[in-house]
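Quick one:
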Amino acid sequence: MSGVAFIKTSLIDFPGRLASVLFLPGCDFRCPYCQNAGLVDPSRAEAGQKPSSLAEFLEFLDRRKNLISGVVISGGEPLLRVETPRVASSIRERGLAVKLDTNGSYPSRIADVAADYVALDFKTSPAAYGRVAPALSDAGERVLESLAYLRSSGTPFEVRITCAPGIVGPVELEAMALSLEAGDEVLLQEFRPGGCLDPAFDSVVPYTRAAMETFLAILRRRAPRARIRGVWNEPS
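Output:
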C-alpha cells in the first residue's frame, strides 16, 4: 500500500499509550473542516510532500516497537481499505496494541480489525449527515449502527464530536444526545481552522469556551461522562 502518512510519536491519540499514528488514504466523507485534505483528495497533497509506503511504516515500527506500545490506524477512513485488517494484524505481530479511528460508515468491518480501542467520530445529527457525507444517503444510520455494535462488542471506545460551526450546534447536539447512553465516553473537540478541505472553513471562527460548556451540558443529560478534550484557544 502506498500513499500513507504517519506520525512517529503521539502522547494524545491512544489513551494510556505512547503511540505512532498511521494515516491511510481515501475517505467516503467530505467533511468541509477536515485537515487531512491530502488523504481525502490526493490532488490536495502539498507540493513536494513525498508519501510513504506501508512497508516503510512497518520498517519504522521494527526500529521503534520497544519505545512505543500502540499504533493508531486513522485516515481518511481506514475501513475503506480491504487491507486494513491485515495491517492491524501486522502491527499486533510486533507486540503493539491497535486503536482504530473511524467515521462509522462501515459498521460490519469494525470487528475485522479487532482493535483494542476504537474512536468513533459522530459528525452531526443523523438527519444532517448530508453536510459531511453527501454521497452516502444513509450515513447517519450507518454511524448509529456502528455505535450500537461497539456497545455490544465489549471493546473500549470513545465517541468524538468535533464542534465545527455550521455542522454542529445546539439543535444538532440535542438530536445527537438522543442516540447516546449513560455509559458512553463522549469527547467534545474544538474545531480549528487552517488547511481545511473546504477553504471557506479556514476563516470560520471556532466556538467560544462558554458555547462549548453549553454544548457539554446538553450532552450530559444523556451521557454524564461527556467532557471537553484539549487545550482551549479563545478566538481573538
